[in-house]
Structure formats: C-alpha cells, structure tokens
Amino acid sequence: MSMDRDVYSGTLPTGIYCMELLLSHYVPVHVPLRMVALFHSEGGHMVLNDAAYNRVRQASTGNPWKEKIAALQKAGVSFELCSFTAYTNKWVNSDLLPGVKVDNDVLLRLITLTQDGYVQIHP
C-alpha cells in the first residue's frame, strides 16, 4: 500500500479500509497474504503517536487510527514511514506508533518490494 495521502472512504482512510478488506477476504480462506503499508508525503501523519499527531494536526483527540493500525500490525501488516517525510516534518522515532519502521528511501523500497513480487496498491 502506497499511503501518500489520507483520502477517505466515508470516515476511514481508504488505504486502511483496503487493508482491512483484503485481510477479511483472504485470511479466512487461508490464502497467504503479505502486506506492507508505506507511509510518505501527506499520509505520514497517520503513523504518529497521540502527542505527535495532536501537535502536527492541531488536534486534541490523539491519533484516531492507532487502534486500527495496531490490529493490522497484529494481523501481520508491516507499517513503514519514509525517512525523508519524517525529516522534512521534523519527526523522530519517538513520534511514531509502536512497531512503525523507518525506510531510508520510500521509492527504493517500492522498487525492491516490486522486485520481490509485491503489487503496489495506491488507494
């Protein structure tokens, strides 16, 4: 999943909705599924912890997606943030939700995942 923006399907970001939908269709019938969610550009804020999310989004609610992201991680989805997105927004590792990895270059990561047989979905 190339998560470069927070486009919504109703009240849920489309990318998160797609991840949940794919898991709900394939896991029950035991189809092997590996999924990596790459957050970059305008979508990066979705993997911030409550304090950082509130600071960045000028909110007081905390990250509304943290429970869904935790459930997706528990289901085996890997969440990764582009280091350039983090750098330009002055985010550090302690600003991220637990388990979120940081990639050196999201474009290179997309290329290597494609070479490894992944298909890019860009919701």
Short description:
The chain is built from 5 helices and 6 strands; from the N terminus they run βββαβααβαβα.
Structural class: alpha/beta
**CATH first level:** Alpha Beta
Domains, number: 1
Task: Describe the largest sheet.
Answer: 4 strands, parallel
Q: Could you please say which CATH topology applies here?
A: Hypothetical Protein Ychn, Chain: A
Inertia-based shape: globular
Rounded mean pLDDT score: 95
Share of helical residues: 25-40%
Low-confidence stretches: none
Helix-strand sequence: EEEHEHHEHEH
Instruction: State the helix count.
Output: 5
The number of distinct β-strands equals: 6
Strand content: 5-15%
Terminal residue distance: 7 Å
CATH superfamily: DsrEFH-like
What can you tell me about this protein's structure?
It is a single chain. By secondary structure, this protein is α/β, with parallel strands linked by helices. The protein has one domain (about 1-115): 3-Layer(aba) Sandwich (Hypothetical Protein Ychn, Chain: A), CATH 3.40.1260.10. About 35% of the residues lie in helices and about 15% in strands. The chain has a 4-stranded parallel β-sheet, sandwiched between helices. It is globular, with a radius of gyration of 14 Å.
